[in-house]
Design goal:
The protein is α+β, with helices and mostly antiparallel strands. 49% of the residues lie in helices and 13% in strands. The structure holds zinc ion.
């Protein structure tokens, strides 16, 4: 495992701990349509392309997925958690979408 992958995974563990959710598995693979996905059982899949993105953006993707363990949709509550954990999440999301 290279340093980037180790960093990515340790970012996941740190945020899971902070948010208080249980991540059971982390998988890295090429994904066509999205940056990441998570199952309600805590199986997180991350796009390998995240390894080439700035840390602020990979962090945003990770927090977004982990908050889904609290709220499955993108409604008000979801946004409330995002703002609590990453106050500048919208800016990061815009940066990610502009890539
Ligand atoms: Zn989502």
């Amino acid at each position: 495992m290279n340093d980037n992958k180790a960093d990515l995974k340790s970012t996941v563990w740190q945020w899971a701990d902070r948010i208080g959710v249980k991540v059971r598995e982390i998988h890295l693979r090429q994904m066509q349509q999205k940056w990441a996905s998570i199952s309600m059982k805590g199986r997180l899949t991350l796009n390998t392309e995240l390894l080439d993105l700035p840390e602020a953006l990979t962090e945003f993707v990770i927090v977004h997925e982990l908050v889904h363990l609290l709220v499955p949709n993108h409604g008000k509550l979801f946004k409330g958690y995002m703002s609590a954990y990453l106050p500048d999440w919208q800016e990061r999301q815009d940066r990610l979408r502009s890539l």
